[in-house]
Amino acid sequence: MVNISEENTPLALSVLDLVPVVSGKTPADSFKNTLDLAQEAERFGYTRYWMAEHHNMAGIASSATSILISHVAGGTSTIRVGSGGIMLPNHSPLVIAEQFGTLESLFPGRIDLGLGRAPGTDQLTAMALRRNLEGAGEDFAQNLAELREYLSADNAGARVRAIPGEGLDIPIWLLGSSTYSAQLAGLLGLPFSFASHFAPNLLFTALQVYRDSFRPSKVLQEPYAMACVNVIAADTDAEAERLATSLYMAFLNVIKGTRTTLQPPVDSMDSVWNEAERYATQQMLSYTFVGSAETIKNKMQAFANETGVDEIMAAGMIYDHDARVKSYKILSELQLQKNVAYIRS
User: Fold this and answer.
1) Peptide bond between residue 200 and the one before it cis (omega within 30 degrees of 0)
2) What is the pLDDT of residues 107-147, one digit of tens each?
3) How far is residue 246's CA from residue 264's CA, in Å, rounded to a whole number?
4) Where does the Luciferase-like domain start and stop, copy by copy (predicted)?
């Protein structure tokens, strides 16, 4: 049963950066832009800045996620920095414990470890990463338990230890686009983030599963849920709609199985996609907020009210870096409220 609280509190906002490689530029340019955006996001008051592990994608440069977290954390001072997420089946739990133990030791109290169970790429590349696909995510819960054991102070007497990492308080989030990680996060009492920026269909179901299955833990006494959405904000609706065409083309490439860098915006998508492609792209991007501050504020507030999430993470695939920074500035000034508190009863 869901009860509604009348208490109004500010809604936490965070950034998901896919570290886009734009047409005509290099990953080195992307890394400079990422650090600049993180510094601006810190100034704008965002809660956390996450980067996502992807592989074999010409338009995304965040494959070495742990290294980029160090790059961003080293150039900022207060904002939390982390992974949205590390695809755990691609790595040994010990390696991730050591990497994030190193990050937490370098930047104490500022590192988040978000974990996913998808490969973050195509099957051929997943094979190159893992050397075999045995398990292919089915042993995620077991690998998660192993990782948490390495990070536990109780592991000090074990023959295999994570140094650094052992005994450090590194928040672990479970990320998902289905109900699997939602239920696991609930059972373990961990925070949960849903990838509604590209997989909208199961958002409400996953949030309900998470809340229904939640068991209080040393980490959390109450569920803490975050949803990721796409946000393209500008001074006018027309400007924002034009900027959003780069995002549409990026997702159209995913649907078509093509790999390109992030393309400059176009005046119209009519000559770029057919009707079936338009429908498929817009279905994936159902939770995409495009427009001026006035246009998107009420829609985003309605989303926060309907989902009851504790935090919204915004992805902003915008070709022009200055326009991207401005979009996040506009979003930060909307003063969204967490109007609806979901209380388990």
Assistant:
1) no
2) 999 999 999 987 656 677 667 766 565 655 578 999 999 99
3) 6
4) 25-310
